[in-house]
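Step 1: inspect the first sequence and its tokens.
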Amino acid sequence: MSYSWHPYTERASYYREGGLHPINLGDTFNDRYKVHSKLGFGACSTIWLVEDLTLNRFASLKVLAADVSAMSSELYVARHLKLQQEKPDSHPGSEHVIRIYDTFIIEGPNGTHHCIVTEILGITLAEDVTEVYGHNNDHFPPNITKKVAGQVALGVAYLHKCGIVHGDLHLKNVLFYSPTLQNASLDELTEIFGEPVVAPITYNTDLSRVPPSVHIPREVVVARYRLPLIELCLSSPENVHIKVCDFGEASIYIPQPQVERPFKTRMPRVLAAPEIIFCDIASPAPSMDIWALGVLLYMILHKKHAIFKSEYGHEKIIVLWMVRFLGKLPDKWWTRWTARSEYFDDNDVDRQGDTELLRKNIGGLNIGEYFSAEEVSAFDGLLRKMFRYEPEDRIDAEEVVRLVPPGWKRRMGELSGSTCENGSSSNNW
């Protein structure tokens, strides 16, 4: 029998053996983390606002589903990152990766669950911000997107310095940061995130309440961000601050793995490098992040639109746009691309006609009110070095940071010469 579904909650059917861990408001983990509200959810995990009773602060707790915990390396990547973050490090990208506080494993009625405690972050780059910027305007303005682009590049550079391949760089895995969220009281956090709202778990047929079970929570908790959180994250455009997060597809990089297995990833195909699409990669590598980062930077600066676009994520359409922007694929992939005859004739000429104009400015920015000639040229040149077909020909993340237009790399408070919101002074990088 199926369960009814409440908007802004995970499906009750996710609570099963091997599935999500049943969590109720007021639960305490490890005699330390008390659950106050829900911050997010999905089929693979739930995320909760918790109070750290030992350190007297609030944090975010992510609890992975049991079957995901058994397969994912997220916990081990988080532990590795935590060790790196505890070392003295002046790399500016460290400010743009989520801070790991704690990791642990719990046993529950649905199995073994990996748990990760982090700082609290705000909205994602995919958030609908029409309530802030007006009707039909669900994207961030250029004065914000430029800074975000530079900071994302810094965050990826820091991860690579730590030996971590992120593996899933997209808009929903980049979140806004605010010191206010780290220092707020429970009442203040409730003002920002809203009072927790609970709903009964009922059957889909007659809406009768499901009997109590150790496998499901007493009620589902609604997680819906409110306008105050969006306004908080965007309240000071000159001090905008983002962090790369979510290591569900991440790996600790091993340059020459002893055992190579067929590599699979759930990365959205519009962000995937050609070696992923053509199944020509044996293990995760930083070069695949560089390609995805290039697509992500394009999306940040182009109102969330991908450069290699496909409305439904069809690989053949994505590859088509790669070729139209970047030129013919290497022979090893060109000959394996079974759909090429739909778009190219026997002489490898595009049936649509000449696409040279696309290749003249793959960055897609226009000189004008928002972007200078120098910025347009620099971004186009940057993407050309990131979107090289052969992984070994792509630049590394530190070079990406170096080539990002200088004005996009300013950190918090630098435009005004003021101090950061948390009181520390800013320095150019």
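Step 2: inspect the second sequence and its tokens, then contrast the two.
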Amino acid sequence: MHPHKRYAQLAIRMVTDGPFTRVIASIPNQRISTFRGRVKEKSDIAVAHSYGLVPGKAQEQVAWLLPELIYIYPTDYEKRYIAEAKPYQHPIVASILREVFFKGPTSFACKNVDIFASSLPPRPEKEIPMVMLALVGAAIHASLMDWSSGHFVSASSFSADRYYDAYNEHLTFLKGIKHNSASKYHTMMYKLYATTSGATQTNGLNNSVTASSALTRLNLSAMDED
């Protein structure tokens, strides 16, 4: 990989000057940390209302939501109903994406339009990036964990080390959907982008084990393909 000529001197210094490189590297790390914090903050605000969590009574409900990523589906806890063909279509997912990445004329989405590319070459519709959705999923997981005692108890910061397993579980799950059906994966992601952005688009642990369990829960055959 060769850097653009505008950045050639910067690239040389980063290769040859260790202290300088560490300072420069901290800048994107700080921005990533800021994004994690904002995602978790919005998740904390939304999770109680979105899942109907009641202080003192939420412990059993949270224990039901966490396994197999049940919290990413539209659910009815009282009826123990899970819309298994609608992963990531629980309203909280689009709400957090919208609040953190799409809200306002100077939003992350407005400044980084190119990252919302289609993963299916014949189809032009924009998608939510896999890593962005995995981050939101991990934040919801973390917020639910804060309710695991039955009351909201804010844990330590939403750090990469603390919630890597949850994040990776979502990545593995999403890759599993894409592997099993690239067209259904694309449809899921472009519809989520449309819902989140307000755009109207036309057609044109052992994480492998836990994600595999979540894929077993998923009703892939009933998912939208178009």
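Step 3: confirm your contrast with the notes below.
Residues 24-30, 200-209 have pLDDT under 50 and may be disordered. DSSP finds nine helices and two strands in the chain.
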